[in-house]
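pinging the channel bc i need a second pair of eyes. not urgent but kinda urgent?? the chain im working w is below, pasted from the shared doc
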Amino acid sequence: MKKTGLDLLNPPEKSTRSALVFSLFFLVMVSPVTPYASSNSTPAVLAIEPLGLKGFGDPWRKTFTLIWEPVGQQRDVAALSEIVGYNIYRRTSPKGAASKINSTPISLTVFADRVDGLTYYYSVRAADASGNESKESLLVDSSPELNTIFTADDGHSAITIPGNASDILRPAYNKYGVPLTVKLNEETTPAQAGVVRSINIQLHRGDTNEEVSDMAFTSPVIINVGYNTIDGQIALGAPGNRLSQQEAFSSGSPDQLALFWFNGVTWVNVGGTVDTHGQTVSVATSNLGRYQLRLAPKAASLTLRQTNVYPSLFTPNGDGYNDRVYFVLENPNGASVEGKIFEPSGRYVATLSPLSSMGTATTLVWSGMDSGGSVVPSGLYVYRINGENKVLTGTVAVAR
């Protein structure tokens, strides 16, 4: 008989795998069901769903352990006035049907399951004594990447956060000391040629629901933005938004779509991979914020627009904000690309690191360090990027 849940925390025999799961039980932050305490004197307030989920797998991928933060009291809704525990749900795909795999609510904020090398998708709901449940948490999968997944209400848009980047959502790993979550909000699409959808993707505090705009992921996440169609034509808004036929773009096709990110000054074309089956455009990036989906002409060859070097002035001081400069190249032919940083005198400083390559976009990044791993002094630096028999040059500034 297959074992699930807390059965695995009482191993029937002494084996390496069982011992590992048993050890994880004590190593993770196991917490009773108590409200989260904020730093001020007012009652703590968390989004009603459990936050701060994190997955752990053993080296053999036999077992999967899930931890999360205890939920707090909600200020204006008394749906969960007496939380008694948590229910665990499992899927075989992110959009698949969820099955509850515990018989009664568990009182701990840790759960272990037998996966035998398979990838499942887990979520958690808080439950009260009357059987009411909270909203669903983010998903966490048992893949080797141990992804945390946010799925938007449109059923297409999603953000996949690899395990090595998801720690920022947990109180111990962000500067606010509270659980964080991800939200996607629709913005009014401007009456501008080619713009078909506008959204804002941000981190939010779990205690106050306030937007957090001064933090970025330490490594790339995958952002999938859904697009709308009417009778096969690109249309305004989110998928399934049934607009009038006049609001469809008669000449617009999915292969013309690209994502643009607002860097605080201008819109940057970050390209993206179009999935006509899933009806999404995807990009790998460390940046959240405002995005637009646009019908945009594609470059014919390797191109680096001035607006696609951002921020042109950056501060590599380790605070997680403006610590790196990005070079987003339009690369329609998939050319091999490499870049280097030099002082104005021509002295070599560092080699640009590849960050991602999705669809027609290739991104390089510089962390402000020289080849020896030391942060460079303030000043002006020259970049030189080679690819497709081109040399693309320009300057960036470092401030310390």
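so The helical segments are 16-27. and The two ends are 61 Å apart (CA to CA). — does that match what u expected or am i reading it wrong
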